[in-house]
Structures are given as structure tokens and as C-alpha cells.
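Q: C-alpha cells for this one, please.
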Amino acid sequence: MKKYTAELLGTFVLTLFGCGSAAIAGATLGTLGIAFAFGLSIVAMAYAIGDISGCHINPAVSLGVWLSGKMDTKDFFGYVVAQCGGALLAALTLAVIINMTNLGGFDVTGLGANGYGAASSVGITACGALIVEVILTAIFVLTILGVTSTEKTAAIAGLVIGLTLTFVHIMGIPLTGTSVNPARSLGPALILGGRALSQLWVFIVGPFGGAALAALIWKKFSAK
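A: Here is the predicted structure, written as C-alpha cells:
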């Protein structure tokens, strides 16, 4: 349970600070600022809970690790449940905070929800959003599998992973808001409902597909 609690806490922090930065100060921070909010959340949590759970805080990462043979099935499902619970709790907390301000409530982007079409800054299609999420998640998960595969890079793994999450957000935010994490997308969508919830499937299928692709590539790279 200690591992699952750590995953819940880590996903809570990632979702609250990442989505919160987009919802509350997105106009001020811009794409780069929001990207760093997500990335720095990963860095902080990697060094806080990394030794406890590995700091996946993302069902797609857990899927990639599981498919790579580095995680048993029981822990995979336990991690996913904990991650989704943490993200939902963060979205609820963010909604409460926003409703106690003069921001005028929240809309689809107000909780940092992901989206396509009218919910995308550039109007990307559902197909385009799916492709983007597969590619960005594959790069992110492949980096994690690589940097955590040897003790030589263990000390800097948290920093590398955080910077990679920042890197994929810089491109992804204008397109889909950048998910690469089904739990981070699930929390805001469940609170908002409507369009955010109806489009959620893209931000579950895309990241999971990208994680599976990353695991396949990693197995090819690491095969002897």
C-alpha cells in the first residue's frame, strides 16, 4: 500500500500543479510556463517518492514498464487505480480553489482538460490528436525506460524525465493540451463532463498506444 499511496500523492501533485497552472495562470505563463509546471512536478515527485514507487504517476508509464517485464500485473493495476484516484482528487481540489476566486468558474480549459476540435487552440482533428498523443507518449515513455535501465543514470533520472515531459508539452499544448497521461486527463474530464468527457477516449487510447509502442521499441533496442 505504501507504493500505491505514493503513486496517488505523486499524481495528485502533477495534476494539481500542472493543470492548475494552465487553468489559473495559463494566459500569463504561456505554453513554456505550463510545460515547465508539468515538468517540474515530475522532478519534485521523482526525488520525493522515486525510491518508494518508482514515481510512475502515469498509467501509460506503468503500462510501458509492465510490458517491458519490469512490473508485475498486480502492481500494474494497483498503480493505475491509485494514479486515477490521485488525479480525480486533484481535479476536485482545483475546482474548489477556482470556485473560490473571481475567475468566473471554469470551462473546458479551466481545469486544464485536454481536447481536440473546438477545444484545441489550433483546431486539431480527433485523428490528429490521437496521432500526436501516440507520438509524444512514445517518446516520453521510451526516455523513461532508457534512463532507468542502468544505475549510471539513476541519479539524474528524475531531472531527465521531468525535462522530457516539459519538452513534449511545448509542442503538445497548442495541439491537444498534452495528455501523455490518461489519469491526468481523466480527473478534469470527470469533473467537467460534457465535451471534455466525450473526447476523453483519445487521451486514453493515444497514451496507452504510445506506451505500448515505446515498450516494443525498447525491447528491440535492449535485445541481445
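A few notes: The mean pLDDT is 93. The chain has one domain: 2-222.
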